[in-house]
Write a structure and sequence with these properties.
Elements lengths: L4 E6 L3 E2 H14 L5 H10 L13 H11 L3 H7 L4 H4 E6 L2 E3 L1 H4 E6 L2 E6 L14 H7 L2 H5 L25 E6 L6 E3 L7 E6 L10 E5 L3 E14 L8 H4 L15 H14 L4 E2 L11 E2 L5 H14 L3 H4 L8 E12 L19 E7 L5 E5 L5 H16 L3 H28 L7 E4 L13 E4 L16
Parallel strand pairs: 11-15, 11-16, 12-13
Antiparallel strand pairs: 1-6, 1-9, 2-8, 3-4, 3-7, 5-6, 7-15, 9-10, 11-14, 17-18
Helix pairs in contact: 1-2
Membrane topology: Multi-pass membrane protein
Protein name: Sodium channel protein Nach
Keywords: Ion channel, Ion transport, Membrane, Sodium, Sodium channel, Sodium transport, Transmembrane, Transmembrane helix, Transport
Length: 467
């Protein structure tokens, strides 16, 4: 099975140092907008991920965004914990790699995250496409080092497949949560959120989550389940098989049932407010991004949905995949102790402030479910032939012979009836045509045929018959 995708971010959404930088920009450009109001603004921004009551009015929120000159997406990206600071050290299959090269900034239902083996949508490369993003995701050391295009980078160009099982045959990451420098949070604790998902899925519906706490070791062991459908199922109409094969869905991206459900739910919740969240997976240029001014509408929409008990999944036109892979995750969190342990991953790091994450498969086997056609038309014909031969001593050839002789007999009977009908007609010599001499009868132009029961004597050709 392919290795799972791993996306992680800090549970505290806004770093204090970047919060102060943006707050100073707002304070310097807007009259009457002090640091206290700036703090309320950036604390309220987390409500864009978890909608809740905000601390500032709509006018102030709109004025601050206009002053910064940022889009909502850019503002939230500016305030995230940068991946080059969150990821202290990374290893794949026991080999150390540059975290900035094998992890990429991606979108998830938790906002902006750092993704490994993430292949959902790579059209938005936040590390390279935009200059305002490149200033944050790159470091001075990276700019000085030449790019070696021949260097192998696991999980960047293609989906990884794990060659084995065990702690050393997987992903190992040292995380610098740095809770002291955070200002606002979407949760009540300091830690990092890890999302385990299929590499082609958007990390939302179906993603397994775990929390990494500073000074702890988080071990995530995986087991896989695969669903595989035979090619014969393609011949079954879609309304009967109720699943989609690769290439049957519109669009260039590979179809994912979880992603389809996620997009549908987001559109049902946010669509009535005329906006979509900044972490929405696809680009919709005709739809604006939700901001703090839309939070009240989103909350009202969510409450109305709970009252009518509307099932989003039943309303979504999404079908499961005929071939799919899922992962089950078992997590274990252990507090680190200073016992003199040293490894290439932990060397030189403060174990009390650093979190360590290990992700690997716990078993070399996986559970597979197969979808196959139990009885096709050819199998049905063979089954009837076998039953017929077993019970009556016949075969399919016997059935064909029976049809042949039955058809032949029907044609023969039909021919005999036609011949018998022709034999009942009198000979032409016994037929003559006459007209009635009774004037009282209704005149008619029809000819009346009479049959003479006796043979006419041979007469002179000059003689005539009167009518």
């Amino acid at each position: 099975m392919p290795n799972n995708g791993v996306s992680g971010n800090s549970a505290d959404g806004i770093a204090r140092k970047w919060n102060y930088k943006a707050a100073s920009d707002v304070t310097g450009l807007t009259n009457g907008f002090d640091i206290n109001m700036s703090n309320k603004l950036f604390s309220s921004l987390m409500k864009l991920i978890r909608p809740d009551k905000i601390e500032i009015d709509n006018a102030t929120a709109s004025s601050a965004l206009d002053t910064l000159g940022y889009s909502v997406e850019k503002l939230m990206f500016e305030l995230m914990h940068p991946c080059n600071l969150l990821l202290a050290r990374c290893a794949w299959l026991g080999q150390i790699y540059d975290c900035n090269k094998i992890f990429k900034t991606v979108k998830a239902n938790e906002g902006f995250c750092c993704g490994f083996n993430y292949h959902y949508d790579l059209t938005n490369n936040y590390n390279n496409d935009d200059s305002w993003l490149a200033n944050i995701t790159t470091t001075d050391e990276e700019n000085l080092q030449p790019d070696n295009s021949s260097e192998y980078l696991p999980g960047v160009d293609e989906i990884l497949r794990v060659p084995g099982t065990g702690r050393d045959i997987g992903l190992s990451v040292a995380l610098n949560i740095d809770g002291e420098n955070y200002k606002s949070s979407v949760r009540q604790f300091v830690g990092g959120t890890v999302l385990i998902h299929d590499p082609i899925d958007y990390p939302d519906v179906g993603a397994q989550t775990a929390t990494v706490i500073p000074g702890h070791v988080m071990v995530l062991t995986l087991s896989g389940t695969k669903i595989r459908s035979s090619n014969d199922i393609r011949n079954i109409p879609l309304r009967k098989r109720m699943c989609l094969f690769d290439g049957e869905s519109p669009g260039e991206r590979k179809y994912s049932y979880q992603t389809c459900i996620s997009e549908c739910i987001q559109q049902n919740i946010y669509g009535s407010c005329g906006c979509l969240p900044f972490f929405f997976p696809d680009e919709h240029p005709d739809t604006r991004t939700c901001y703090l001014t839309d939070v009240d509408c989103i909350l009202a929409r969510r409450r109305s949905l709970s009252r009518v008990q509307l099932s989003h999944i039943n309303d979504c036109k999404c079908l499961p995949q005929c071939n799919d892979e899922t992962f089950d995750v078992v997590g274990e969190s252990i507090r680190t102790d200073d016992i003199g342990y040293d490894s290439e991953l932990t060397h030189g790091l403060n174990a009390k402030n650093t979190s360590f994450l290990y992700v690997y498969f716990r078993d070399g086997t996986y559970l597979e479910y197969r979808k196959e056609t139990i009885l096709g038309w050819d199998s049905l014909l063979a089954s009837f032939g076998g039953i017929f031969g077993l019970c009556l001593g016949g075969s399919v050839l016997s059935f064909v012979e029976f049809l042949y002789y039955m058809t032949k007999e029907l044609l023969a009977v039909r021919g005999k009836k036609r011949a018998l009908r022709n034999d009942n007609l009198p000979p032409a010599s016994k037929l003559f045509v006459s007209r009635s001499t009774n004037n009282d009868l209704v005149k008619t132009e029809k000819c009346v045929f009479h049959v003479w029961t006796e043979q006419f004597p041979r007469q002179n050709p000059k003689s005539t018959f009167a009518s």
